[in-house]
Task: structure prediction
Amino acid sequence: MKKTASPYITVKQSSIHSNGVFAKKNIPAGTRVIEYVGEKITKAESDRRAEVVLNVNKTDNTKGAVYIFTLNKRYDIDGNVSYNTARLINHSCSPNCEAQLVRGHIWIVALKDIQRGEELTYNYGYDFDSYEEHPCRCGSPDCVGYILAEEHWPKLKARHLTHRPKRKLSHEEIVRHQEKFRRKPKVPVILVLDNIRSAHNVGAAFRTADGAGIEKIYLCGITAYPPNSQIDKTALGAQCSVAWEYHNNVADVLKDIKARGYQVILLEQTDASFDYADFEAKQPVCLVVGNEIEGVSEIAFHLADRAMEIPMFGEKNSLNVSVACGVAVYHISHSLRTHLRS
Ligand SMILES: C[S@@+](CC[C@H](N)C(=O)[O-])C[C@H]1O[C@@H](n2cnc3c(N)ncnc32)[C@H](O)[C@@H]1O
Ligand SMILES: [Zn+2]
Result:
């Protein structure tokens, strides 16, 4: 049998898995890109083949998926045949295509406008039963981590919220897991470091800013700025991934940030500070963190809109500035992300 072809596609190596199918030219939404063909088999035969594939998958989860599509009440199509070029289309959690049954034929149809060079994907629609055996490497920012039908995604989330962990992730798995956050847009939170004495604390703030995915750090007054070997020590590379600017004058920085619509909040114990945990961010936030001994500068104090504090339940009356910064930045960015999603 001759391999099926389509004027829209070409097969080449994929970053998702082995070979994939790519757009040879722009494909408008709604286009029937290529037919998914194969052997027409009865339901009984279909069940038998699915069982065989499942057993193979138990020992090697890189080995073929179930290639079977429902055709009608009596027959299915097994696409696991070399002439079915559409079988090479990889799965994605943010697919640009879907399989549609059109008058007894299965078509791969574009769900959106696809640009030349983009990889074609659809959601394989796997069951929930054995999802752990099929980790997803689609690399999309919305990747749920497994090849799984979208209808099961809420169950997956609930399961991860309630189940006790069975093992720690390997370094490789952590890196892969992080991929799904890496390309998410930054949250509109700015951190201003106002006269920070220790360059180690500056480096730690960079690391927090990177982890929390905030927009930018402004380093003001005596605060050290890159390149600086002490910053490098604690930032561990985050000084290169987080946008930053140095300004001697914190007042100029805060006036400009306020004019851009940010609410300026001090991380400081004042006569009107609120508990950071009660803060619900509803607009872009600029958090100002001050000197280890003196706190925020007078001028920053006067320009700020509000002040928040982290309650202290022990003997000491304050946290290390980089620890406090981590607590506050994570809380604010989580709160603002939640607000922006709603
Ligand atoms: C139908 S084949 C797809 C074509 C395949 N890339 C090839 O070169 O043969 C299905 C297999 O590709 C792999 N695959 C497809 N999409 C994937 C994804 N998003 N993440 C991980 N593996 C994927 C899985 O091993 C799956 O069993
Ligand atoms: Zn995915």
Summary: The mean pLDDT is 92. The domain at 9-161 is CATH 2.170.270.10 (Beta-clip-like). The CA atoms of residues 201 and 339 lie 29 Å apart. The radius of gyration is 27 Å.
